[in-house]
Amino acid sequence: MTFERTSDVQQKPARSVNKDVPWYEEDVGDVPEPVQQLLEQYSGIPADQVKEQILTVRERAWNTWPYPCIGLFRFLDLGLSRSPLYPEVLSRMQQLQTLLDLGCCFGQDVRKLIFDGAPAERIYGSDLRGEFIEIGYDLFRDGDRRRANFFAADVFDRDQPDLKRLEGTVDIIHAASFIHLFDYQGQIDVCKRLVQILRPVKDVLVVGRQTGHLHPGEYKHNAAVTGTMFRHDDKSFVEMWKRVGVETGTSWRVDIHLREISTASGRSTSGQPDDPNSRYLLFAVRRED
Question: Which residue, among 25, 27, 45, has the nearest Cα to 35 in the 3D structure?
Answer without folding.
Answer: 45
